[in-house]
Amino acid sequence: MRDDLLLNAAQIAIQYRQTVDEIPVVSTATRAELAAQLDQHLPETGEPPEAALRALVTGVERGLVNSANPRYFGFVMGGSTPVSIAADWLTSAWNQNAQVYLTSPAAALVEEVVAGWLLDLLGLPGDAGVGFVTGTQMAHFTALSVARNAVLARHGWDIDAEGLQGAPHINVVCGECCHATLHSAIRMMGLGTRNIRTVTADDEGRMRTDAFRQALAECSGPTIVCLQAGNVNTGSFDPFAELIPIAREKGAWAHVDGAFGLWAAASPRDRWLTAGVESADSWSTDAHKWLNVPYDSGMVIIRDANAHRALKTARCAYAGTESAVDRDGSQWVPENSRRARAFVLYAALRAFGRQGVAEIVEHCCDMARAFADRLASLPGAQVLNQVALNQVLCRFDPPVNADPSIFHTSVARRLQREGACWIGATQWRGQTALRISVSNGATSLADVETAVGCVERAVALERRAIGD
């Protein structure tokens, strides 16, 4: 192996990480410019490895979004820490297949250990099943597939033998502000979005208990309900302590989308937001958000570990004999061959400890509240949500002759072009607003103040451009 090539790659990565606070947050190249560098004919005979690596770096560097920058507030995307990056490099170097115990005993045992740590940290049942997937999208797909099979079995239908053809109708109940990944998972499961019963939410996006109760009263037969820990716009939480008992009375399966909000359970100060969430049947979350590890690192957690493992029972003859003791990672996720994602989590959790994880969550929430306070002091600004977590929605009085939607979208694009921070626009309750997500543990008060100054300047420039 060419050690100098690996050392060169490491040096490039280190140099990039050393400058994340300084280089623009936004991509600085157009699509045409990137294509001119990257979209070339496949070499017939191949190039020296050094040249291939150099071509990659030169081709992509101006097209990278600097999401590791502490002033990246666009999507709910955490940063990454030196220990998690180092562990990710080792995971690639070791190149372990976490499919079954036979392919990597180390990966299997680390998954087992990390699963226990996560359940303890998040206050979830200690005997629940845990699978390590790409992200919340696949976590939803896995959890809702298990839910589908379980609720059908309760009504006498064996989906493994019979499939979905002729199966009893399954009701799916979601809040009107649920995330699009739930709709995608429901489609991929073959249940169809037309079968979703949508429950009215309050001004913060929380499902209303009275509307939820009414929706379940109208359901007959197998039923799955999808709840939310951390609305992607407001950061709000459904009232689990009220909703899950109602679902239980109906015999429904309760799934929780906790992509980032479930991590609030790790904070002694903020875990009140998740009260009752431990009573659900399944949960989805991401470590590449608040744990600040590299992509892709999602987790699916299911209370009934036996039902979880029963989702995928087929086994290749060459994979060895199933053991009652040794963990086979592929039993808990849709994939067979996959990277050993839990190595990074093991290193990150050991480095942070329980207190460190809580500090990341609480710090990001504190920075979000500081963001909201400073934005609210600007002329014509209005913070639209109760900042209970890490999300901030802000709207400005638009010029009298401007379309409010176009105005806020233009402000966001102006911020992104400037490159000092990354803030996007979203739709909330029929209005376009700026959306700020604080998910990087490295974000400081100085970063917040810099970003607020950028917002103030962008709003003023946009007003001037319109002629207000």
Question: How does this structure look, described?
Answer:
With 468 residues, the protein is an alpha/beta fold. It is 42% helix and 12% strand. It contains 14 helices and 11 strands. It has helices at residues 3-18, 31-38, 49-60, 82-94, 105-122, 136-154, 159-162, 180-188, 209-217, 240-250, 305-310, 342-376, 404-418, 445-466; strands at 129-133, 171-175, 196-199, 223-228, 253-257, 282-286, 298-302, 381-383, 391-396, 424-428, 431-437. A 7-stranded mixed beta sheet has the order 1-7-6-5-4-2-3, with helices on both faces. Helix 2 packs antiparallel against helix 3 (49-60). The protein is globular.
Q: How large is the share of residues in beta strands? A: 5-15%
Number of helices: 14
Largest sheet geometry = 7 strands, mixed
Q: Which spans of ≥5 residues are poorly predicted at pLDDT below 50?
A: none
Basic shape? globular
- Rounded mean pLDDT is 93
Instruction: Give the tally of β-strands.
Output: 11
Helical percent range? Answer: 40-55%
Q: Termini distance? A: 63 Å
Which strands sit side by side, in order, in the main sheet?
Answer: 1-7-6-5-4-2-3
One letter per element, helices H and strands E, the order comes to HHHHHEHHEHEHEHEEEHHEEHEEH
Structural class computed from helices and strand pairing: alpha/beta
Radius of gyration: 24 Å
For this entry, give a set of tags.
single chain, 468 residues, alpha/beta, 14 helices, 12% strand, globular
Topology:
Blueprint: H1 3-18, H2 31-38, H3 49-60, H4 82-94, H5 105-122, E1 129-133, H6 136-154, H7 159-162, E2 171-175, H8 180-188, E3 196-199, H9 209-217, E4 223-228, H10 240-250, E5 253-257, E6 282-286, E7 298-302, H11 305-310, H12 342-376, E8 381-383, E9 391-396, H13 404-418, E10 424-428, E11 431-437, H14 445-466
Parallel strand pairs: 2-3, 2-4, 4-5, 5-6
Antiparallel strand pairs: 1-7, 6-7, 8-9, 9-11, 10-11
Helix pairs in contact: 2-3, 4-12, 5-12, 6-8, 9-10, 12-14, 13-14
